[in-house]
Amino acid sequence: MNFLLITVLLTAATLVLGAYVVAKLIGPRSYNPLKGEPYECGIPTRGSSWLPLSVGYYLFAILFLMFDIETVLLYPWAVVVKQFGPMALVSIGFFLAVLVLGLAYAWRKGALEWK
Fold first, then answer.
1. Which helix (H) or strand (E) holds 15?
2. Residue 102: is its pLDDT beyond 70?
3. Which residues contact 45 (CB under 8 A, 6 or more apart)?
4. What would the DSSP string read from start to end of 17-31?
5. How far apart are CA 78 and CA 43, in angstroms?
6. Is 75 in a helix, a strand, or coil?
7. Given a cut of 70, is residue 27 above it in pLDDT?
8. What pLDDT score was predicted for residue 44?
């Protein structure tokens, strides 16, 4: 078992190192100071590129992740629901109820509206 793990790790490290070396050897070499300057759509930027974002974007992203994870967790439950019987229905009902309450709370607070 340990020999197999060591072999896989050494093979992976060799392939990554080999790809890096080949890219360095055959890749184009063009060093220009203009390449390092920030731009957007070919237009030079003015001022700072660091602008504060609204908290609403982060809240919307967290809500998206929450319901995305819910969908991922529903699939394994649906696969084994027959094996666990009525207790599985009760547990997933509770899970969905908590998520629906979270969605209702976020909706009421206006987290789903773009302002």
1. helix 2-26
2. yes
3. 38, 39
4. HHHHHHHHHHS----
5. 52
6. helix
7. yes
8. 65
